[in-house]
Write a structure and sequence with these properties.
mainly alpha, 2 domains, elongated
């Protein structure tokens, strides 16, 4: 009987967990919490890692929007090379420009950049979940 009670409790716990995980807000909150715990000490660190070149290029674009020209159609790099035109045509810099606007609100800080990118990541998870629901029309398969 004790074994049967344990099995019943395990079944109930499993059903409760399954029902909670099928709720998108709970799942997003769980993903956000785990990610914050895993990356908490990284938010205030300077740029580093294998992809430092890309991180620094993105941060330079953000700083140039913040410090020099806030025109989204004129992304700039730091190489003037004796000319006045340092506009760098590249992918459309909507993310960099948006983060620069947060720098205008809260001040220039790598922490602001990291928080903005973190939120963009969470929104991407939400968007991917919505896409999977449209494609599969099944909440369980969407996870």
């Amino acid at each position: 009987m004790n074994n049967q009670q344990n099995f019943s409790i395990a079944e109930k716990l499993n059903a409760l967990l399954r029902n909670l995980l099928l709720k998108p807000l709970f799942s997003l909150g769980l993903i956000a919490l785990v990610s914050v715990v895993m990356h908490f000490n990284i938010f205030t660190l300077d740029l580093q890692g294998n992809h430092l070149w890309r991180q620094s290029q993105t941060q330079i674009n953000i700083q140039n929007f913040y410090r020099h020209d806030n025109n989204i159609l004129n992304p700039r790099h730091n190489n003037f090379a004796g000319s006045e035109n340092n506009i760098q045509r590249m992918e459309f810099p909507i993310m960099q420009w948006t983060i620069a606007q947060f720098h205008r609100l809260f001040g220039e800080s790598i922490t602001i950049t990291r928080i903005c990118v973190f939120v963009i990541g969470l929104l991407s998870v939400c968007g991917f979940f919505q896409l999977m629901q449209v494609l599969f029309k099944n909440a369980l398969l969407s996870f």
